[in-house]
């Protein structure tokens, strides 16, 4: 019997052309192939030749096509014509928009540059935006890091010259035991997924430490459901056990860390010679010598005229019974036996399964080693441990743990990615000298070495609006973006004229106290003028923040502009190679929009800003692409390291190549330069790596250094609080500085615990980002909304049963700041005193071109309404920031709440009235045809 087979085209024409660029749907910076038909995007796949993702692409990356076609895209520059917050705008030309911006900015630059507060969100071009702000002359610049993960970055750099994620990665090919702390699924997701697959594929073990078992923790071989804010206590209990058992890499500690460095018994500062080099006792001779002398064996147990070593202080501190597993178990929510078991497993794999690579190398002392010792234990951590008021010390504790095991920059352990590692001394210090109509005296952000580097006026008042680098948060390397609007509104430390922001949804999901921030942005003074006089905002989409601006400078989507993922900023490097990348306009905008960086170039040209104009006043750069190619931060060093020199044959250092961008496009949008064999481990101390890094332009000269288990900058601040030196903290901060800025990692309870009644607010509340979303722009994506269109509050079994919850129920959740009413769902794999939800799912009605009854606007919500940028008042009349006292990191995850069953309302509460959308609502069905 004949059967008629259907006629199917098994080889349809997929595309006319493939254009290769870099994804922007999260911060992974994966390589993508953009398939084109008739000049339009047909679909997006991963680039198999790309060093980051090797062809792997997640749901976000594939859904990039829906971002490019999103109905919420802004269409043209706009000026506000209704009350601020109403969303009523009038479209204007770019010339009019730039004239308006210059009209606001020029008088500020001429009379008082600090009256401009310029802060950017997740823009991935901070070397450029910082350069712009520096040349404008304002001290008030930073990006999102202060409310994201500055504790992680600064904690790592101050301790060992780099941190996790963009700074380094596990040795995925050799590690046997991989331990994660506080990692959600949004950061570095494709490389981590690939790496976890490798570890599991060869029988390795993964331990996930997180109150919530989702994402990476769901596939971990062992899940540790820790109580939020106690990670540092758990880590130091493991350090205690390792010291007690003598399971320490003593040779590693003596050679590569400041553990053998002597501490002056009187000052607590490191002992140094006349050249400023740290002093150790050589075990071979018993003599006092500089740490970097050839042939020495630094003595960890030395004692010189009553001055002991860092190692001896560490042993004394961490062998204290307060850190014993039995002493911390109840607080951490982890049994003492389990703490001991995990510690034993770390030690067993690190030491009993150690291995060697048959590779010789020469260290910074000039000593040659025949082998490279591998310790197959690696760690990774992110925002979960960072976003607490004790997060800086917790991050340092985690680095202490991996260092005493000898697992940093060795085979099988954690490895730095170029341009890291860098000692603190290789980074700039912060600058804040303001001169009218001139550039700032140096970079805004950096790393302080002691009280002398604080950004304070002669009277002790803050130079910066966000109070970064003050006694309130001395080591705030990324600034405090979450305090900018609150401080500007309060006029504390001073009033500003113009708030200029880019891609920072501060009136909604990127602010604590979202409702309060909306009021701050719209409040008027007794004269009827807005308290924050002028707001300029740039975004690609009609976000919640758009309604609060006076002038909108519309950005493009990521496939319509140039971007530079640079070694000067946040490159795409891997542990084996330096790598950077670009984005380029694979399609042209169909709207009257411009890439924000190009808009900044145009503003700089009109303002005559140094760095952007020649001596005759003519423009140095036509647009951002021109800047990327022709700008040199130092002679021969520019934003891109690849294809330098007139022939494109130089890397790292070289003359400007006018065809550089074309070379990157031909190469798939990226450039990779591999580290030579033998230079790829022990980077901080390996002479071959140091020489290679100098040739690449990463260093100007070799920069070997010791890991700082004992932080001398912190001891300098602590000494000032004890009454030493000319610059001392105000009295109300003196005890806090002494207590929190211990030069050895410590743990203290999160600050909210002492500001609220923990007998009333017994529950910890967290948010985390899902793997299929990234910040707020993902939840307007037509494909991704089908994965996460609403977000319940997930409740553990103990709290669920105690409140008699059932499926479909709602709860009132209250904090010391406010309350929300939200849908709940049961989750068993959750710390028993913790509730959580996905972040940035909830939307305000009228934003993002969504309908007013969209699930994101009615069943989606934010925990932000329960969190305040300030801690509850202490009765002393002072404003205490809800931040880490050392770095100013926003303490999102210290939140304490109480929960009670509630009648189901029609929609989540609070429900704000709709805002008028400048782009209207999108169609019921988002469809279009690409090609014939």
From TrEMBL:
One of its GO terms (molecular function) is 4 iron, 4 sulfur cluster binding. The keyword Metal-binding applies. Keywords: 4Fe-4S, Iron, Iron-sulfur, Metal-binding, Oxidoreductase. Residues 16-72 form the 4Fe-4S Mo/W bis-MGD-type domain. This is Tetrathionate reductase subunit A. Residues 913-932 are annotated as: Disordered. It comes from the Bacteria. It is an enzyme of class 1 (oxidoreductase).
């Amino acid at each position: 019997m004949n059967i008629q087979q259907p006629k199917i085209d098994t080889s349809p024409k997929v595309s006319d052309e493939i254009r290769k660029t870099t994804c922007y749907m999260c911060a992974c910076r994966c390589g993508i192939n953009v398939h084109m038909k008739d000049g339009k995007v047909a679909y997006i796949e991963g680039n198999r030749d790309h060093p980051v993702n090797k062809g792997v692409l997640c749901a976000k990356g594939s859904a990039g096509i829906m971002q490019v076609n999103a109905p919420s895209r802004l269409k043209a520059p706009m000026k506000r014509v209704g009350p601020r917050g109403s969303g009523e705008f009038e479209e204007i030309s770019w010339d009019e928009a730039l004239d308006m911006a210059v009209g606001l900015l020029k008088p500020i630059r001429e009379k008082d540059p600090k009256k401009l507060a310029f802060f950017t969100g997740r823009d991935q071009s901070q070397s450029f935006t910082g350069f712009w702000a520096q040349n404008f002359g304002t001290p008030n610049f930073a990006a999102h890091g202060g409310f994201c993960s500055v504790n992680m970055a600064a904690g790592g750099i101050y301790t060992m010259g780099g941190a996790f994620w963009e700074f380094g990665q596990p040795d995925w090919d050799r590690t046997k035991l991989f331990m994660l702390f506080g990692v959600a699924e949004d950061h570095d997701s494709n490389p981590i997924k690939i790496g976890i697959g490798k570890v599991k594929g060869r029988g390795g073990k993964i331990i996930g430490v997180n109150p919530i078992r989702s994402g990476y923790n769901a596939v971990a071989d062992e899940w540790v459901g820790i109580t939020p804010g106690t990670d540092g206590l758990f880590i130091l209990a493991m350090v205690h056990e390792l010291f007690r058992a003598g399971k320490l890499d003593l040779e590693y500690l003596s050679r590569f860390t400041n553990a053998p460095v002597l501490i002056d018994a009187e000052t607590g500062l490191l002992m140094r010679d006349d050249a400023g080099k740290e002093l150790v006792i050589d075990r071979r001779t018993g003599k006092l010598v500089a740490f970097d002398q050839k042939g020495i064996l630094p003595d960890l147990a030395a004692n010189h005229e009553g001055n002991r070593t860092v190692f001896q202080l560490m042993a004394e501190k961490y062998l204290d019974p307060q850190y014993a597993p039995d002493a911390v178990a109840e607080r951490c929510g982890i049994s003492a036996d389990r703490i001991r078991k995990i510690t034993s497993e770390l030690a067993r794999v690190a030491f009993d399964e150690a291995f060697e690579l048959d590779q010789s190398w020469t260290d910074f002392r000039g000593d040659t080693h025949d082998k490279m010792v591998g310790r197959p234990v690696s760690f990774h951590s992110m925002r979960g441990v960072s976003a607490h008021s004790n997060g800086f010390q917790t991050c340092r504790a985690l680095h202490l743990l991996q260092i005493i095991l000898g697992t940093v920059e060795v085979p099988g352990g954690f490895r730095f990615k170029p341009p890291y590692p860098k000692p603190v001394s290789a980074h700039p210090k912060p600058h804040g000298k303001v001169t009218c109509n001139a550039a700032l005296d140096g970079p805004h952000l950096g790393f302080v070495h002691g009280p002398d580097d604080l950004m304070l006026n002669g009277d002790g008042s803050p130079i910066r609006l966000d109070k970064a680098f003050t006694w309130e948060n001395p080591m705030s390397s990324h600034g405090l973006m979450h305090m900018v609007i609150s401080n500007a509104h309060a006029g504390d430390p001073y009033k500003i004229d113009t708030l200029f922001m880019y891609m920072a949804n501060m009136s909604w999901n990127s602010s604590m106290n979202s409702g309060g921030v909306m009021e701050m942005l719209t409040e008027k003074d007794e004269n009827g003028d807005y308290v924050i006089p002028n707001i300029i905002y740039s975004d690609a989409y009609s976000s919640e923040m758009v309604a609060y601006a006076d002038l909108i400078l519309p950005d493009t989507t990521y496939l319509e502009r140039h971007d530079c993922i640079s070694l000067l900023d946040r490159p795409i490097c891997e542990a084996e190679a330096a790598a950077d990348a670009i984005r380029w306009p694979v399609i042209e905008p169909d709207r009257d929009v411009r890439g924000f960086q190009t808009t900044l170039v145009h503003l700089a040209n009109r303002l005559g800003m140094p760095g952007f104009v020649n001596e005759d006043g003519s423009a140095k750069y036509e647009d951002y692409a021109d800047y990327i190619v022709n700008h040199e931060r130092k002679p021969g060093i520019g934003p891109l390291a690849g294809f330098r020199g007139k022939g494109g044959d130089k890397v790292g250092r070289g003359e400007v190549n006018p065809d550089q961008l074309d070379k990157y496009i031909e190469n798939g949008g990226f450039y990779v330069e591999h580290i030579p064999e033998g230079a790829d481990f022990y980077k901080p101390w390996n002479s071959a790596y140091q020489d290679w890094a100098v040739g690449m332009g990463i260093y100007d000269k070799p920069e070997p250094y010791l890991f700082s288990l004992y932080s001398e900058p912190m001891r300098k601040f602590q000494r000032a609080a004890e009454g030493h030196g000319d610059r001392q903290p105000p009295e109300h901060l003196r005890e806090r500085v002494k207590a929190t800025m211990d030069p050895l990692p410590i743990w203290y309870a999160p600050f909210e615990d002492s500001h609220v009644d923990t007998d009333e607010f017994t529950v910890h509340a967290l948010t985390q980002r899902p793997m299929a979303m990234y910040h707020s722009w993902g939840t307007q994506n037509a494909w991704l909304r089908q994965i996460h269109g609403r977000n319940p509050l997930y409740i553990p079994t103990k709290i669920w049963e105690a409140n008699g919850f059932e499926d479909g129920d709602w709860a009132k959740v209250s904090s010391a700041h406010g309350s929300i009413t939200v849908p709940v769902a049961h989750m068993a794999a959750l710390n028993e005193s913790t509730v959580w939800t996905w972040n940035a799912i909830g939307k305000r009605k009228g934003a993002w071109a969504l309908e007013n009854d969209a699930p994101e606007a009615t069943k989606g919500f934010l925990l932000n309404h329960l969190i305040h940028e300030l801690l509850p008042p202490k009765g002393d009349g002072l404003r205490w920031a809800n931040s880490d006292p050392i770095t100013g990191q926003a303490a999102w995850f210290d939140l304490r709440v109480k929960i009670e069953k509630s009648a189901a309302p029609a929609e989540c509460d609070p429900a704000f009235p709709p805002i008028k959308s400048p782009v209207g609502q999108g169609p019921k069905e988002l469809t279009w045809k690409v090609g014939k």
